Amino acid sequence: IMQLPVVYQKAKEQVFKIWTTIQPLLTVHVGLASSAKALIILEQCGKNKGYQEMDACGLHPEGGCCMLDGPEKIESTINMKSLWKNISVEGIDIIFSRDAGRYICDYTYYTSLYYGNGRAAFIHVPPLSKSLTAEFLGKALQTIILEMLKQCGKEREAQHKDNSLSVE
């Protein structure tokens, strides 16, 4: 678990470090959606351009862009729509989205999708409250992430079968 700063460049450096040093199967990013009340948002893709809002240091990316040579958007290898349709957590609504906003969350997500070849996920969560405790939200996230890992497992099995077929 790593907390990323609300600074574009530092967040990008940390994400790069995650992918080059840890080399995870999947990186799951969780960000605060302060406007969401009792709502978890599963984000499908990250966008490369449109980052004009200033970060905590008063800066924004050059050209409002994550990666100057990157594609317009990158889709997660996790099928968030399928996950959304097949998962439920009592006491909180879960929705599917294709727009994580144009701030640090979307910037971080795109960067992670870029460096991780799509093997990243982003979940927006509401602020904690009396009715939405950290323990409850933690259990909800655990349920969602376990389902994501099942998708990764199926993907790896399919790749393994493809590799073994091509070897024979």
From TrEMBL:
Which GO terms of the molecular function aspect are on file?
pyroglutamyl-peptidase activity
InterPro entries per record? Peptidase_C15, Peptidase_C15-like, Peptidase_C15-like_sf
Classify the source by domain of life: Eukaryota
Alphabetized, the UniProt keywords read:
Cytoplasm, Hydrolase, Protease, Thiol protease
| Xref: Pfam families | Peptidase_C15
Its BP terms in the Gene Ontology are:
proteolysis
Q: Which GO terms describe its cellular component?
A: cytosol
Q: Where is the signal peptide?
A: none
Q: SUPFAM superfamilies under this entry?
A: Pyrrolidone carboxyl peptidase (pyroglutamate aminopeptidase) (SSF53182)
Q: What's the family?
A: Belongs to the peptidase C15 family.
Q: What is this protein called?
A: Pyroglutamyl-peptidase I like
The opening ranks of the lineage are: Eukaryota, Metazoa, Chordata, Craniata, Vertebrata
